[in-house]
Specification:
The chain is mainly alpha-helical. The protein contains nine helices and six strands; from the N terminus they run ββαββββαααααααα. The protein has helices spanning 33-52, 102-122, 128-144, 147-150, 155-173, 182-188, 194-210, 245-248, 251-256; strands at 16-19, 24-27, 63-64, 83-84, 88-90, 93-95. Strand 1 and strand 2 (24-27) form a beta hairpin. The longest helix has 21 residues, at 102-122.
């Protein structure tokens, strides 16, 4: 049973609420202490709501986190005994305060390499086809989960991810010498670079949003005033004008510029 009346607690406030199957997120843009007080009041209302419906709030899994580039952001103690964290894994993605993804990428690369180590021990004598299938099924999904959110622009992060696939190619061919070039053998295996696959995934996701296959709030505008020509498109998305890298390289601005 899903109870959607919880959305009432954010009415007439700047606080936003996002609902998932068994948890939710409260968030707000904080400019002044008044915004902090309002967010805290909404959280108190949420606790009252959960108590009314006899659904105890798990405070051990309830945290607060601030996303900012400021060296000294506004401090506030939200709720009673709520833990404040500097990074948090939510829905499989590790978030950092500055919305950079180095930590998340390091974690998923480490996880993928552990899985690769397991495959090396288990499939040592398997065929190339079997090893390739194992890589595509067990390792590559780890490197691509929710990539539309965290797709990197830094060369070091891109290289880190590609390095895992190169090690997987060495495993597939059982070649670990310096004369072996994983990039050339990737073509034989029909393995596109992870960067190329992330680009295709971003474009595909934007296509689904524009054509309302995925229903989300769309913080961009459509310009249908352009005359139809061979080079024009009936749907034109107005480019963003980002000032911060964390916004410039986020999903929508980054994908629109492709």
């Amino acid at each position: 049973i899903y109870l959607n009346d919880v959305v009432e607690i954010t009415k007439n406030t700047r606080v936003k609420l996002r609902l998932y199957a068994d948890d939710c997120v409260l968030y707000s843009c904080i400019s002044t202490s008044r915004d902090q007080i309002q967010l805290n009041n909404v959280f108190s209302s949420f606790r009252t709501w959960s108590s009314t419906w006899q659904m105890a709030l798990n405070l051990n899994k309830t945290v607060s986190m601030t996303f900012t580039n400021k060296k000294e952001p506004l401090r506030f103690s939200y709720g009673q005994n709520m833990k404040h964290v500097n990074e948090y894994k939510y829905l499989g993605v590790t978030f950092s305060p500055n919305l950079k993804w180095h930590k998340h990428i390091n974690l998923i690369c480490s996880k993928a390499l552990r899985k690769l180590g397991f495959l090396k021990r288990t499939l040592k004598d398997a065929t190339h086809e079997c090893k390739l299938t194992a890589y595509k099924s067990l390792i590559r999904p780890v490197l691509e989960y929710a990539s539309v959110v965290w797709s990197p622009h830094c060369a070091c992060d891109i290289a880190h991810l590609e390095g895992v696939q190169k090690k997987a190619i060495r495993f597939i061919y059982h070649r670990y010498d310096h004369n072996f070039l994983p990039s050339s053998h990737a073509v034989r295996l029909s393995l596109k670079s992870l960067e190329h696959r992330r680009t295709c995934e971003r474009i595909g996701t934007l296509h689904k949003i524009v054509n309302k296959i995925i229903t989300i709030d769309m913080p961009f505008s459509f310009d249908n005033s352009v005359a139809n020509t061979r080079r024009s498109n009936p749907i034109n998305i107005t480019p963003f004008m980002p000032f911060l890298d964390c916004f410039k390289f986020s999903f929508l601005p980054f994908t629109v510029e492709l």
